[in-house]
Amino acid sequence: MKYVVFEAICLTVTAWNAVVLAESPKLLWEVAPFEADITIPIGHACMGGGVANAREIVDPLYAKGFVLRPRGTVLPNQEEPGPIPVGKREAFPIVVLALDWCQLNNEADFRFREALAEAAGTTRQRILLACVHQHDAPIFDLRAQVLLDEQGLTGWLCDPKFFEEALARVVAALKEALKNPRPVTHIGLGQARVEKIASNRKIITAEGRIHWSRSSASGATYGDYPEGDIDPWLKTISLWNNDEPIVAWSSYAVHPMSYYGQGQVSADFPGMARAKRQADDPRVMQIYFTGCAGDTTAGKYNTGDPGNRPVLADRLYRAMLEAWQSTQRYPLESVVCRHADLYLPPRDEGDFTLERMRAILGNEKEKRWRRISAALGLSWRERVAAGKPIEVPCLDFNNGQAFFGVLPAETFVGYQLMAQQLRPDAFVMLAGFGDGAPGYIPTDACWKEGYNDDYCWVAPMTDALFRDLLAQVLNLPEGSGCPKISPTDKMGPTNARSCPSCIRREVIYQELSPDYLWFHPRVVAIPGLGRNGNPRLVLTLQKHLRVSDFYSGLYYMVSDDLGRSWRGPIQIPQLDWKPQPDGSTFAVADVTPGYHPPTGKVLALGAYVYYDQQGHQLHDRPRFSQTAYAIYDPQTDDWSGWHLLEFPDDKKFNLARNACSQWLVEPDGTLLIPVYFAENYGVMATAVFRCQFDGHKLRIFEQGDELHLNQVRGLVEPSIIRCGNWYFLTLRNDLRGYVTRSTDGLHWEPIRPWLFDDGQELGSYDTQQHWISHGDRLYLIYTRRGAMNDHVPRHRAPLFMAEVDQNNLCVLRATERVVLPERGSMMGNFGAATITPEEAWVTVGEYTALSSPEVRPNPKGGDGSVLLGRICWD
Q1: Residue 765 and residue 754: Cα distance in Å, rounded?
Q2: Are 358 and 373 in contact (CB under 8 A)?
Q3: Three-state DSSP class for 281?
Q4: Model pTM greater than 0.85?
């Protein structure tokens, strides 16, 4: 395959992975199907230890999937494919995979997807992985098993060693398949009604009573009640090379069990139906997914008699065959992979509190399943507390003609039906049983009707979250999602005034290059100059040249529609490097722009530095690093050159930087600019300077208190904000962040370390923190330790936000939310700004390291993106 670096001009954003390059060449595709045997050994736990361990292998368990990736681009008037864009997300491979396992939870799900991503050269967010959910098959939750191991309960839930062995088989099969991919020219879409398999767990008796006891094998135990709420359609999507089919995957929403629980390992009736379809035409890889079937089973039509398994298999087979026969083919014009992050609030009452789950796990008198369930619940709660979302991927074929997505765990069928109702114009096919950690995920209606089950770790009432999620991945028009809700993303309901209504995670720009990364993206809103009276947004950013603190000249991007589309990045020649007579280079980095209402101008403040020829900063001259500023006129779209802010003639200002720092404009037009300074590049102090700006020159006329800390490099990268009658200053130190406040912005209380309101340290260190406010509420944006992020240098991801207690100067732990999740890359150099009364933005570039000369993204997701956390207020 040929590759080429492709420069983007414009892009639009909706959900993660939805960046569309306006001038991207049309991609041509190829597919590589693969399969591997993942049958558990005799003695392994089935259904996570909830039923008998494996005693007999009735039939094997398989992993079946495919890699879909570009094979070239369409060139005008040429038959040979053109080169594939290098470093662009839309050209990263996609993997679709179904496992004949019961569940993959938490770390096991991440581990599996990341291993596949590493092998395929993509990111885990482009891995559509789900379990078929047979119960005589394993559940893998690696952290839960560690918790059990600590109690001496080895192997009660799963065998991590076998997990790695099975994963290695799947990875090897994927790599082997990539040696012989086949071109894809068409997509096929078909569906058929399934007769006499699915029924809902919910039964309404003749007396009007509701109960939820219809299981997979209950038969007529509860009378001949209707099927209830189901999705009767089996859907099939297929990929073709002209008129030759290559791979077909089907999905139907029903629990995939006829009988189980005696240790007879089997893929059950879906495995039988799949094998029969495979035998019909061995050329076509047949893959089966279970749809959103948390509340649908075969119970109405199944008694648990082993003789009924082939009957159910035949009914499913006939539907698969009919869906195939009804398939219509269409040219494959485009494939877009989106994903959205889902933060489900944890259940936290009764036996679901942390205290009770720990007690149950440690109690030798408790039954095996109760102790395993407690370990599963604790594993989930650790993941929730760390701010790790459920990543929900979805493929969009031919710009909305067809969708295939994977929802988590035992999502109820109502959410599958919701997706179809949101896109009635499209062929919408969903699988359930992605990341299995939450257990059952009932709809709001089911909760209201009395649903309650111990295998559910999610707090009630999640319809609004799913509606928003589906609106993003199904690419619905603006306003179709983002519900006005008060529960937090990760910690359950709190004070509604403390919480944004939602946070959208978006991509402003994406480019993965071996030579540079986009860094320091910070935005300023210019009132009234955008469309429909909205502000014009100007985003400044620079190239990080893959040497520590080595940056290009300044670039900028412009949006007139609140970030839905952008112009740029545009290089600013007058703000580029300036070669010096001694061979060094003058440059300005760490820029933060802001709007100055009295003059209608934008000021961009940063720090000038001198680089040697290897990109290292030089400290060998007087005033070797100072505060610089440039002026942008939004009326003419013109930039000035760099100007220097003049500090008093004192050697303590030999280094004097406003760098990566928020500054503010007072109502009288004066500016409060925090600066850190030192005689040499050693222990630095901080002060706030009151300045005047006349539209042409920025001048200091008053200096505030000097703040000192004789620890490592002292106090640097300060950010200031005014909220109510107080000014607040947050400061970076190598060991921890600090905070103080003032009544005038110049004279400050003694600094104190950042703490949570329970007295624990915040854990933010050796990086900046920033502010946003909303009304009389103040929020801190920060990174910290303790978020399952030890693999991230200096724990610089994810980015959190939380409300600040303005009286006690601490962070309210219960209000903490993830603004931008960790994707394996550092996110330290970020910006935060209010855009409108309804929105605040957090922007950051990813430091995505390249482990080889080949340009490949981080399997965890880092791909050189400029990311946006759009914080929406009620």
Answers
A1: 10
A2: no
A3: coil
A4: yes
